[in-house]
Amino acid sequence: xxxxxxxxxxxxxxxxxxxxxxxxxxxxxxxxxxxxxxxxxxxxxxxxxxxxxxxxxxxxxxxxxxxxxxxxxxxxxxxxxxxxxxxxxxxxxxxxxxxxxxxxxxxxxxxx
Length: 112
Fold this sequence. Notes:
There is one protein chain. This protein is an alpha+beta fold. The chain has one domain (4-103): Winged helix-like DNA-binding domain superfamily/Winged helix DNA-binding domain (Arc Repressor Mutant, subunit A), CATH 1.10.10.10. It has helices at residues 4-19, 26-36, 45-57, 81-105; strands spanning 24-25, 61-67, 73-79. A three-stranded antiparallel β-sheet has the order 1-3-2. The model has no long low-confidence stretch (mean pLDDT 95).
C-alpha cells in the first residue's frame, strides 16, 4: 500500500487526469483509480468528496446531478478550463519529481 501522505498528495492530479478522459462520479473515480493502481491506491468517500468539493470551489471541475442508468441520482464531475490548466501544471510538477527521483535512484558507479 502507498502511504496516506503520498495518496493525499496525488489526489488532485489523479482526479484531473481521470476526468480528462471524460466525466465521472465520485464512486466511479474511486473504482477507476483503484483499478489503475492495481489496488495500491485506496480512496475512501470520506477522503475524496472534500477534495472534489474544494476542486469545484476552485473552478477546476464542475458538477451536475443526473440520474444514472439505475435511476438513482449521481453527481457527475467534469473538467473546467481551469482544470485543464491545473492538469498541465500538475503534470510538469510530477514529472520534475519523477525525473529527480529516477536520477537519484539510478545505480551509481562504485568508487574504488
